[in-house]
Amino acid sequence: MLSVKQFVNSTFNSNTYLIKSEINPRSGWLVDVGIFSDWFEGLHSHCEIEGIFLTHAHYDHIYAIHEVISLFPKCKIYCSEFTRTSLIDPKLNLSFYHEEPLSYSFDDIELLKEGDRIELFNRIELMTIETPGHNKGSLSFLLEQYIFYRRFLGSRTQSGYKIKKRQY
Fold first, then answer.
1. pLDDT by residue (tens digit) across 81-96?
2. Considering only the top CATH level, what class is 2-164?
3. Stated pTM of the model
4. What DSSP state is assigned to residue 59?
5. Where are the domains of the chain?
6. In whole angstroms, what is the distance from residue 21 CA to residue 28 CA?
7. What is the number of other CB atoms lying within 10 angstroms of the CB of residue 134?
8. Helix or strand (DSSP H, E) at 88
9. Exposed end of the chain (fewer CB within 10 Å): N or C?
C-alpha cells in the first residue's frame, strides 16, 4: 500500500510530496523539493530518499534541492531535458529574481520523457507524462491512483482522474 504525504511551502505556494510504501518502509521518493524544514532532518534518521521527481524547474519547486542531496547523497534527480537546463541557469529557474540564485549541475540527473516508467517499489511504477504549458519542460507523474501535476495532486475516479486543487 502506498502513502503520499503533502508538505506545503506557504512562502512559495508550492508542495513537496513524500511517497512511501509498506513494501519497503525505509525507502522514500519526493515529488518537487520546494520546501526545506525540520521534517527533512527527522526523515533522514528512518528513511532513505531514493529520488526526486521534478514537475518543472521553477524556483518554488527546486528551492531545497541542495539540502536534500546533501542529506541523501545517493538520491537521483528525475526531470525533463529542459528542466535539467533550467536547473543550471538561475534566470531560467527564476531563482535570480528572488535574490538567491540557485544553480544545480551534478551527474545524478536522469532525463525523463513521455511514457518513461521508473520502478519505485517492487512492481510499483511511476509513469511520466509530458505536460508542457506552464513551463516548456513540465512533467506530470502517474502512480497507481495518484497523479502529480505541478501544484496539484489528483486521484483516480471511475471516470478517469480528478485533479484536486491543493489546500491552502
1. 999 999 999 999 888 9
2. alpha beta
3. 0.87
4. H
5. 2-164
6. 8
7. 13
8. helix 81-88
9. C
In whole angstroms, give the CA distance from residue 139 to residue 130.
Answer: 5
CA distances 85 to 62, 109, 111, 118, 137, Å, are 13, 11, 11, 21, 9
Residue 154, pLDDT above cutoff 90: no
User: Cα(85)–Cα(122) distance, rounded to whole angstroms?
Assistant: 31
Classify the phi-psi angles of 154: left when phi > 0, otherwise alpha if psi is within -120 to 50, otherwise beta. Answer: beta
Judge contact between 28 and 46, C-beta under 8 A: no
Half-sphere exposure of 85 (CA within 13 A, CB side): 8
Q: Residue 103 corresponds to which amino acid?
A: S
Cβ-based neighbours of 145, under 8 Å, separated by 6 or more: 155, 156
For residues 127 and 162, what is the distance between their CA atoms, to the nearest angstrom?
A: 17
